[in-house]
Amino acid sequence: MFSNAEIGIDLGTANILVYSKDKGIILNEPSVVALNTETRDVLAVGAEAKSMVGKTPSHIVAVRPLRDGVIADFDVTTSMLKAIMKKASKQIGALRKPNVVVCAPSGSTSVERRAILDAVRSCGAKNVHVIEEPVAAAIGADLPVEEPTANVVVDIGGGTTEVAIISFGGVVSCNSVRIGGDKLDEAIIQHVRKQYNVLIGERTAEQIKMEIGYAPIDHEILSMEVRGRDLVNGLPKTVALQSDEVRHAISEHLLQILEAVRSTLEDCPPELSGDIVDRGVLITGGGALLKGIQDWLSNEISVPVHLAPNPLESVAIGTGRSLKFIDKLQKATV
């Protein structure tokens, strides 16, 4: 009954999403694992593990086994995937051996793709297909990827930003930069450290980015109180941050993303350039939710920029749907 269950997995640096053909998104968990360092046992996975980040005793660490969109720690990733598949099977019913489509960054090497395939296979999947992240994002955002027209996707994830021009089911031109939400968080941590001598954690930096983070455009100044540890006397301290400081702190990384978009458009065949002017660029991924990024990108590249209907879920939805025409998209079936 369940032998031909089909699921799509968005194996993201920040979140893992699982999509089922029948039920849509059935799981959305942070890509975090809590480990006991003495026994190497997995104590918690997903949201439960994320709530432990920076708050655990010395023998327990909360780690993120995926870095820059690829597997950094194979064993921990496998344990995490097993736990995620277990949760998913409860949602769908007893999954015997599902067919799985999993996405990989377009700039990933064959070794990195092999690691993703092996990790998913070891969780009991029947057939595993790997598709490129921007293609999955385009399918998930309802773009006509099978038609011979240019679809430009900018997928700003946690670890990587993928920029791709897709036409006729394949990638015509693409660029992948290892800059995403994580790098923006790091830039905010460094700024608060330099400016105020206060050390803040990753979760706080992420909260700052979401609440008062802005792309490099003029905007109404927002402020926010931030708590951290004073590096001079070691005591807790509260500082008031303003959105123009955050904008300045993250602008360098955003300019690198812009550079990737420009160089991808420069490689575009002239026949497809006309389509891009008409159809514009689609932004997706968690980074697409940064305030002002749509207007800023549109001003910089003089092309309309649209936000995907579900930026956080586009890739997962696309991986699940892509099974219909996986043969056309297939590049890395093993």
Automatic annotation (TrEMBL):
PANTHER family, per the entry:
CELL SHAPE-DETERMINING PROTEIN MREB
Function recorded in the entry: Forms membrane-associated dynamic filaments that are essential for cell shape determination. Acts by regulating cell wall synthesis and cell elongation, and thus cell shape. A feedback loop between cell geometry and MreB localization may maintain elongated cell shape by targeting cell wall growth to regions of negative cell wall curvature.
Q: Where in the cell is it found?
A: Cytoplasm
Protein known as = Cell shape-determining protein MreB
Keyword hit for Phosphoprotein? no
Protein origin, superkingdom: Bacteria
Q: Where does ATP bind?
A: T13, A14, N15, G158, G159, T160, E206, Q207, I208, K209, G286, G287, A288, L289
State the oligomer form and interacting partners. Answer: Forms polymers.
Primary location: cytoplasm
Give the source species: Alkalicoccobacillus gibsonii
Keywords attached to this Swiss-Prot or TrEMBL record, sorted alphabetically, are: ATP-binding, Cell shape, Cytoplasm, Nucleotide-binding
UniProt gene name: mreBH
Q: Does the keyword Transferase apply?
A: no
Q: Which family does it belong to?
A: Belongs to the FtsA/MreB family.
A Pfam family cross-referenced in the UniProt record is MreB_Mbl
Question: Which InterPro entries does the entry mention?
Answer: ATPase_NBD, MreB, MreB_MamK-like
